[in-house]
Amino acid sequence: MSTQDTPKYTVPGLSTDEARSLIGLLQMRLHALNDLHLTLKHIHWNVVGPHFIAVHEMLDPQVDRVREMADDVAERLATLGGVAQGTPGALVEARAWQDYSVGRADAIAHLGALDLVYTGVIESVRQAVAQAGETDPATEDLLIEQLRDLEQYQWFVRAHLETAGGSLSTAGATSETEAAQAAEQ
């Protein structure tokens, strides 16, 4: 967001410069959430194997909630005086991450890769919470609520990856492909 993108107005109690900063932060959250809900649907469509139905059905409520999160973020962004950029081109241009890398694969392999996706999203939400908390408790509150849900979804995923001894089968994996392979073993 450039200085020419500074909103003409914002909510009472915030300066337009503070709003501009929050709008930029929220725009990246919007991109991440739009990417996440598409990734979840990709997994939903491409999961196979003996755990197919469990994973297939587990993902739909996550997709629905992540879409709601994106809508909430876009509406907060607009409330602050910004313009929510929700097009695929804007997402691809702005993101710092690559597309999800696993195609048709066993359910456990997808969950291993998805665990890393959730880790990246959750870490970035935590950073956004800290940044928003310096300026705007309403934006901070919105992000904290979303953080709780995202952490719960990662717990659902990790329950499939946890060994009887309490460790994750994907521990130490640094890429989606590596996590997918580790989860299958």
Automatic annotation (TrEMBL):
It comes from the Bacteria. Residues 25-163 form the Ferritin/DPS domain. PROSITE patterns: DPS_1 (PS00818). CDD domains: DPS. It holds the Pfam family Ferritin. Belongs to the Dps family. NCBIfam families: PRK09448.1 (NF006975). This is DNA starvation/stationary phase protection protein Dps. It comes from Streptomyces cremeus.
